[in-house]
Structures are given as structure tokens and as C-alpha cells.
Fold:
Amino acid sequence: MITKSLYQEVILDHNRNPRNYGSLDNANRSAEGHNPLCGDHLNIKINLSENLIIDSITFQGESCAICKASASMMTANVKGKTQADAETMIKEFRDMTVGKLEPDDDHHLGRLTVFVGVRDLPTRVKCAILPWHTLQAALNSVTTISTEADDDPMHVSIGNAS
Ligand code: ZN
Structure:
């Protein structure tokens, strides 16, 4: 059961003390993500090993609390995982925020299920999902994405949440 207070506690904790915040010297993948509706702007850098494991990942940028907490938790959760595992989590996170996956279903999201609450706040879905879009772009060597771009591969499934 996800309580509102747990959600608030996690968001506050990750805002006060964001994990993996900063730059990454040896990055071999990176992408920038924009969410013009809120003004969120993120830069994600990854060091992907030869056997496709996310050895290190960092994020930087200006964003609202939900976006920052989502980015912080995302980096902590995908670090050390394979690219394929990270892509599974990207899909699961997106499905959860749009109501296609329930926290009680089988998934690999762990405490990231606290973000299930954004479902009820349509304008916040894009804030929560921006870091995941940007991670997907970086893993696929796409350098810039926007939640409002027509060619954003995730745009269609999210729809006009606003
Ligand atoms: Zn935002």
C-alpha cells in the first residue's frame, strides 16, 4: 500500500539529498531531456560497459521536485543493471504512471512504486517520466528529447496528459 506520506517522504528525501547528482567524466552515453510544460530540464550521463552494464550514471539540471526525485531514484535503481534490465524498468515505470501496471503486479520497480500517485495528477506524469525518457534516449544514443516533440517515441503512449 502506497501512502501519501510515504510518497511525500521519499520525494523530500531525494530532493534534499539527490543520489548520483553531478557530472560524469568518463561518460560514453548522454542525453538531454526537456519538459516544456513544467520547465524541467535534465542532462543524463552514463558509462555503459562493453558488456552493456550501466557502470555509472549521473544527472544534472533544473527541475521540479517530482522530476528530481524521480531522476535520483532512477539512477540509484538502474546503476549496475544491464541495458536490457533498465529498458524493462523504463517500460514498467511508464506503464505504472499511465495506469497499465499496478504496484501489486510483477515488476522490477521496488520503491519506485511510490510514483504511482502521479497518475492522479496528469500534469505531473511528464515530470516523473522525463528522467526515464531521457535515460531511454541516452541508451539509444539519441542526444535530445522533449516530452512535447512529435517524434518522441514515448509521446504517443503518454498522450496529452495536460
Ligand atoms: Zn516538473
User: Anything to note?
Assistant: Residues 122 and 161 are 5 Å apart (CA to CA). Confidence is low (pLDDT under 50) at residues 155-162. Helices lie at 4-16, 65-78, 83-97, 122-139, 155-158. The pocket of zinc ion is lined by residues 35, 38, 40, 63-64, 66-67, 127 (CB under 6 Å).
